[in-house]
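Lab notes, practical 5.
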Amino acid sequence: RAPQKQNMVEKGNPFIVGVLILGNIIILMCGIALYAETVWVTADQYKVYPILGVSGKDDVYAGAWIAIFCGFAFFCLGVFGIVALARGSRLQLMLYLVLMLIVYIFECASCITSYTHRDFVVSNHRMVTKQMLTFYAAPTAQGRELTRMWDRIMMEQQCCGATGPLDWVNHTSTFRSFYPEGLAPWPFLCCKRDANFVILSPEGCRVGHVDYINTKGCFEHIENAVNSYTWGISWFGFAILMFTCPVMLLAMYHYTTL
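Output from the prediction step:
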Protein backbone atom coordinates (compact mmCIF):
# COMPACT_ATOMS: atom_id res chain seq x y z
CA ARG A 1 0.00 0.00 0.00
CA ALA A 2 2.85 2.42 0.72
CA PRO A 3 4.26 2.29 -2.85
CA GLN A 4 0.73 2.77 -4.23
CA LYS A 5 0.20 5.87 -2.08
CA GLN A 6 3.57 7.27 -3.16
CA ASN A 7 2.63 6.83 -6.85
CA MET A 8 -0.64 8.69 -6.29
CA VAL A 9 1.24 11.65 -4.77
CA GLU A 10 3.66 11.72 -7.67
CA LYS A 11 0.93 11.81 -10.33
CA GLY A 12 1.18 14.85 -12.58
CA ASN A 13 3.83 16.16 -14.92
CA PRO A 14 6.83 17.57 -13.00
CA PHE A 15 7.43 20.07 -15.81
CA ILE A 16 3.88 21.44 -15.48
CA VAL A 17 4.35 21.68 -11.71
CA GLY A 18 7.55 23.68 -12.25
CA VAL A 19 5.84 26.03 -14.72
CA LEU A 20 2.93 26.54 -12.32
CA ILE A 21 5.25 27.30 -9.41
CA LEU A 22 7.12 29.84 -11.56
CA GLY A 23 3.80 31.34 -12.67
CA ASN A 24 2.64 31.73 -9.09
CA ILE A 25 5.93 33.36 -8.10
CA ILE A 26 5.32 35.95 -10.84
CA ILE A 27 1.68 36.38 -9.74
CA LEU A 28 2.62 37.03 -6.12
CA MET A 29 5.25 39.58 -7.18
CA CYS A 30 2.71 41.28 -9.48
CA GLY A 31 0.23 41.28 -6.60
CA ILE A 32 2.63 43.21 -4.38
CA ALA A 33 3.33 45.65 -7.25
CA LEU A 34 -0.43 46.14 -7.82
CA TYR A 35 -0.95 46.70 -4.10
CA ALA A 36 1.77 49.36 -3.98
CA GLU A 37 0.55 51.03 -7.18
CA THR A 38 -3.03 51.33 -6.01
CA VAL A 39 -2.02 52.57 -2.56
CA TRP A 40 -0.23 55.38 -4.44
CA VAL A 41 -3.47 56.10 -6.34
CA THR A 42 -5.65 56.23 -3.21
CA ALA A 43 -3.11 58.61 -1.63
CA ASP A 44 -3.99 60.99 -4.51
CA GLN A 45 -0.50 62.34 -5.15
CA TYR A 46 -1.80 64.78 -7.79
CA LYS A 47 -4.55 65.98 -5.41
CA VAL A 48 -7.33 65.93 -8.02
CA TYR A 49 -9.84 63.89 -6.03
CA PRO A 50 -12.16 66.90 -5.33
CA ILE A 51 -12.96 67.12 -9.06
CA LEU A 52 -14.04 63.48 -9.17
CA GLY A 53 -15.71 63.61 -5.76
CA VAL A 54 -17.93 66.61 -6.48
CA SER A 55 -18.97 65.20 -9.86
CA GLY A 56 -19.93 61.89 -8.23
CA LYS A 57 -17.64 60.06 -10.68
CA ASP A 58 -14.99 59.02 -8.16
CA ASP A 59 -15.18 55.31 -8.96
CA VAL A 60 -11.62 55.55 -10.25
CA TYR A 61 -10.74 55.51 -6.57
CA ALA A 62 -13.31 52.80 -5.83
CA GLY A 63 -11.52 50.66 -8.40
CA ALA A 64 -8.24 51.42 -6.64
CA TRP A 65 -9.61 50.22 -3.28
CA ILE A 66 -10.79 46.98 -4.91
CA ALA A 67 -7.37 46.57 -6.53
CA ILE A 68 -5.65 46.99 -3.14
CA PHE A 69 -7.59 43.96 -1.91
CA CYS A 70 -6.90 42.06 -5.13
CA GLY A 71 -3.17 42.83 -5.07
CA PHE A 72 -2.81 41.50 -1.53
CA ALA A 73 -5.01 38.51 -2.39
CA PHE A 74 -2.88 37.68 -5.46
CA PHE A 75 0.20 37.70 -3.23
CA CYS A 76 -1.39 35.39 -0.65
CA LEU A 77 -2.84 33.05 -3.28
CA GLY A 78 0.49 32.90 -5.10
CA VAL A 79 2.11 31.64 -1.91
CA PHE A 80 -0.78 29.25 -1.22
CA GLY A 81 -0.64 27.93 -4.79
CA ILE A 82 3.06 27.13 -4.48
CA VAL A 83 2.41 25.21 -1.25
CA ALA A 84 -0.53 23.32 -2.81
CA LEU A 85 1.55 22.37 -5.86
CA ALA A 86 4.52 21.29 -3.77
CA ARG A 87 2.31 19.05 -1.61
CA GLY A 88 0.30 17.71 -4.56
CA SER A 89 -2.95 18.06 -2.63
CA ARG A 90 -6.13 17.96 -4.72
CA LEU A 91 -8.15 19.66 -1.97
CA GLN A 92 -5.70 22.54 -1.58
CA LEU A 93 -5.39 22.96 -5.34
CA MET A 94 -9.18 23.07 -5.71
CA LEU A 95 -9.40 25.69 -2.94
CA TYR A 96 -6.64 27.65 -4.69
CA LEU A 97 -8.55 27.62 -7.99
CA VAL A 98 -11.84 28.69 -6.42
CA LEU A 99 -10.27 31.57 -4.49
CA MET A 100 -8.20 32.66 -7.49
CA LEU A 101 -11.34 32.75 -9.64
CA ILE A 102 -13.11 34.97 -7.07
CA VAL A 103 -10.16 37.41 -6.92
CA TYR A 104 -9.93 37.32 -10.73
CA ILE A 105 -13.56 38.47 -11.02
CA PHE A 106 -13.03 41.27 -8.49
CA GLU A 107 -9.94 42.48 -10.36
CA CYS A 108 -11.91 42.49 -13.63
CA ALA A 109 -14.50 44.69 -11.94
CA SER A 110 -11.75 47.02 -10.68
CA CYS A 111 -10.24 47.44 -14.16
CA ILE A 112 -13.58 48.06 -15.88
CA THR A 113 -14.86 50.47 -13.21
CA SER A 114 -11.75 52.63 -13.21
CA TYR A 115 -11.42 52.81 -16.98
CA THR A 116 -15.05 53.67 -17.71
CA HIS A 117 -15.11 56.46 -15.11
CA ARG A 118 -11.76 57.75 -16.34
CA ASP A 119 -13.37 58.25 -19.77
CA PHE A 120 -16.08 60.43 -18.22
CA VAL A 121 -13.51 62.92 -16.89
CA VAL A 122 -10.80 62.79 -19.55
CA SER A 123 -13.15 63.13 -22.50
CA ASN A 124 -15.31 65.86 -20.94
CA HIS A 125 -13.42 69.10 -20.34
CA ARG A 126 -16.76 70.96 -20.36
CA MET A 127 -17.76 69.14 -17.18
CA VAL A 128 -14.53 70.19 -15.47
CA THR A 129 -14.97 73.77 -16.68
CA LYS A 130 -18.58 73.98 -15.48
CA GLN A 131 -17.63 72.52 -12.12
CA MET A 132 -14.82 75.04 -11.70
CA LEU A 133 -17.07 77.98 -12.59
CA THR A 134 -19.77 76.75 -10.20
CA PHE A 135 -17.66 75.97 -7.13
CA TYR A 136 -14.60 78.22 -7.34
CA ALA A 137 -14.87 80.91 -4.62
CA ALA A 138 -18.20 79.48 -3.41
CA PRO A 139 -18.60 79.83 0.41
CA THR A 140 -19.50 76.16 0.91
CA ALA A 141 -17.48 73.17 2.07
CA GLN A 142 -17.22 71.83 -1.48
CA GLY A 143 -16.47 75.31 -2.78
CA ARG A 144 -13.61 75.84 -0.33
CA GLU A 145 -12.18 72.42 -1.12
CA LEU A 146 -12.28 72.96 -4.88
CA THR A 147 -10.97 76.51 -4.54
CA ARG A 148 -7.91 75.27 -2.65
CA MET A 149 -7.36 72.59 -5.28
CA TRP A 150 -7.61 74.99 -8.22
CA ASP A 151 -5.41 77.56 -6.48
CA ARG A 152 -2.71 74.94 -5.92
CA ILE A 153 -2.89 73.62 -9.49
CA MET A 154 -2.84 77.10 -11.08
CA MET A 155 0.13 78.08 -8.91
CA GLU A 156 2.17 74.90 -9.38
CA GLN A 157 1.39 74.27 -13.06
CA GLN A 158 1.39 77.95 -14.09
CA CYS A 159 -1.97 77.56 -15.80
CA CYS A 160 -5.30 79.36 -15.67
CA GLY A 161 -8.80 77.92 -15.63
CA ALA A 162 -9.69 74.64 -17.33
CA THR A 163 -8.94 75.65 -20.93
CA GLY A 164 -7.51 79.15 -20.41
CA PRO A 165 -8.17 82.60 -18.86
CA LEU A 166 -11.18 83.20 -21.10
CA ASP A 167 -13.11 80.59 -19.10
CA TRP A 168 -13.61 83.29 -16.48
CA VAL A 169 -14.73 85.91 -19.02
CA ASN A 170 -16.91 83.97 -21.44
CA HIS A 171 -19.01 82.16 -18.84
CA THR A 172 -21.03 83.05 -15.78
CA SER A 173 -19.29 81.97 -12.60
CA THR A 174 -19.51 82.18 -8.82
CA PHE A 175 -16.15 83.96 -8.89
CA ARG A 176 -17.66 86.76 -11.00
CA SER A 177 -20.43 87.33 -8.46
CA PHE A 178 -17.77 88.29 -5.89
CA TYR A 179 -15.23 90.06 -8.13
CA PRO A 180 -16.26 92.49 -10.90
CA GLU A 181 -14.60 91.94 -14.26
CA GLY A 182 -12.92 95.34 -14.16
CA LEU A 183 -11.28 94.54 -10.81
CA ALA A 184 -10.37 90.88 -11.39
CA PRO A 185 -11.37 89.33 -14.70
CA TRP A 186 -9.76 86.07 -13.49
CA PRO A 187 -8.15 84.90 -10.24
CA PHE A 188 -4.79 86.54 -9.64
CA LEU A 189 -3.22 83.09 -9.34
CA CYS A 190 -3.43 83.15 -13.14
CA CYS A 191 -0.80 85.90 -13.17
CA LYS A 192 2.82 85.14 -13.97
CA ARG A 193 5.19 85.46 -11.03
CA ASP A 194 8.89 85.81 -10.40
CA ALA A 195 11.12 83.35 -8.52
CA ASN A 196 9.76 84.67 -5.21
CA PHE A 197 6.14 84.12 -6.34
CA VAL A 198 5.52 87.86 -6.58
CA ILE A 199 3.19 88.91 -9.42
CA LEU A 200 5.26 90.45 -12.23
CA SER A 201 2.64 93.04 -13.16
CA PRO A 202 -0.83 93.09 -11.57
CA GLU A 203 -2.05 95.65 -14.09
CA GLY A 204 -0.61 93.72 -17.05
CA CYS A 205 -2.26 90.57 -15.75
CA ARG A 206 -5.58 92.38 -15.26
CA VAL A 207 -5.69 93.52 -18.89
CA GLY A 208 -4.63 90.08 -20.15
CA HIS A 209 -1.19 90.88 -21.55
CA VAL A 210 0.39 87.60 -22.70
CA ASP A 211 3.67 88.45 -20.96
CA TYR A 212 1.97 88.68 -17.58
CA ILE A 213 -0.72 86.02 -17.59
CA ASN A 214 -0.60 82.23 -17.90
CA THR A 215 -2.52 81.41 -21.06
CA LYS A 216 -2.34 77.62 -20.73
CA GLY A 217 -5.37 75.79 -19.31
CA CYS A 218 -5.12 73.35 -16.39
CA PHE A 219 -7.23 70.60 -17.92
CA GLU A 220 -4.17 68.94 -19.47
CA HIS A 221 -2.64 68.46 -16.02
CA ILE A 222 -5.90 67.04 -14.65
CA GLU A 223 -6.19 64.73 -17.66
CA ASN A 224 -2.63 63.45 -17.18
CA ALA A 225 -3.25 62.87 -13.46
CA VAL A 226 -6.40 60.81 -14.05
CA ASN A 227 -4.70 58.90 -16.88
CA SER A 228 -1.78 58.06 -14.58
CA TYR A 229 -4.16 56.73 -11.94
CA THR A 230 -6.08 54.70 -14.51
CA TRP A 231 -2.91 53.19 -15.95
CA GLY A 232 -1.92 51.92 -12.52
CA ILE A 233 -5.34 50.47 -11.78
CA SER A 234 -6.72 49.32 -15.12
CA TRP A 235 -3.88 48.63 -17.53
CA PHE A 236 -1.48 47.11 -15.01
CA GLY A 237 -4.37 45.13 -13.51
CA PHE A 238 -5.41 43.98 -16.99
CA ALA A 239 -1.85 42.80 -17.69
CA ILE A 240 -1.90 40.74 -14.49
CA LEU A 241 -5.24 39.23 -15.51
CA MET A 242 -3.87 38.26 -18.93
CA PHE A 243 -0.97 36.44 -17.26
CA THR A 244 -3.10 34.85 -14.53
CA CYS A 245 -5.63 33.37 -16.95
CA PRO A 246 -3.28 30.79 -18.59
CA VAL A 247 -1.79 29.95 -15.20
CA MET A 248 -5.27 29.16 -13.88
CA LEU A 249 -6.12 27.08 -16.95
CA LEU A 250 -2.89 25.10 -16.60
CA ALA A 251 -3.61 24.61 -12.89
CA MET A 252 -7.07 23.23 -13.80
CA TYR A 253 -5.46 20.77 -16.20
CA HIS A 254 -2.93 19.76 -13.54
CA TYR A 255 -5.77 19.22 -11.06
CA THR A 256 -7.33 16.63 -13.40
CA THR A 257 -4.07 14.62 -13.44
CA LEU A 258 -3.77 14.32 -9.65
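Observations recorded by the TA: The two ends are 18 Å apart (CA to CA). Confidence is low (pLDDT under 50) at residues 1-9.
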